[in-house]
């Protein structure tokens, strides 16, 4: 059966089925703050709220490579090779049957190659001031940004 991922409800269902049938997952999220103090957030087509860009780590892919790929795919962000990515923390997502783990990276230098056009996965991407995030920014996204902004150590749970 071929899933039509142009239907958001079908995409959500396929994600839930995958969550119940697979083992532990590893994912990445990234924090890109521009020179004006604004952070990049994305809004997905299949789940509510604004999130840090990110996604799953593919087999044979490192965390930093996955994050660089996700930045490109979700927000048209290219990580400056000389700057690399800095690991902020590694989190357990207790809401995902305790099998989901997320590495959060901060990108110190990057370029934006153009506006992100909506696609099957990303409805919208944009930069927002840290002190004026969209109202429906997720709790975990707000927590990670507060840790980074305030220089606090990362929590254990997403």
What is the mean pLDDT? Answer: 91
Main sheet record: 4 strands, mixed
Q: For the record, what CATH class applies? A: Alpha Beta
Query: H/E series, N to C?
Result: HEEEEHEEEEEH
Question: If strands are numbered along the chain, what order do they take across the biggest sheet?
Answer: 4-1-7-6
Tally of strands: 9
Beta-strand residue fraction: 25-35%
Per CATH, the superfamily is Nucleoside Triphosphate Pyrophosphohydrolase
User: What is the tally of helical segments?
Assistant: 3
Helix content: 10-25%
CATH architecture: Alpha-Beta Complex
Task: Return residue spans where pLDDT drops below 50 for at least 5 consecutive residues.
Answer: none
Q: Based on helices, strands and strand pairing, what is the structural class?
A: alpha+beta
Q: Say what the CATH topology is.
A: Nucleoside Triphosphate Pyrophosphohydrolase
Summarize the structure.
The chain is of the alpha+beta class. The protein has helices at residues 8-21, 63-75, 139-150; strands at 25-32, 38-44, 50-51, 54-56, 77-79, 86-93, 100-107, 110-112, 122-129.
How does this model look, in words?
25% of the residues lie in helices and 32% in strands. The radius of gyration is 15 Å and the shape is globular. It contains three helices and nine strands; from the N terminus they run H-E-E-E-E-H-E-E-E-E-E-H. A four-stranded mixed β-sheet has the order 4-1-7-6, with helices on both faces. Strands 3-2-9 form a three-stranded antiparallel β-sheet, with no helix packed on it. A two-stranded antiparallel ribbon has the order 5-8.
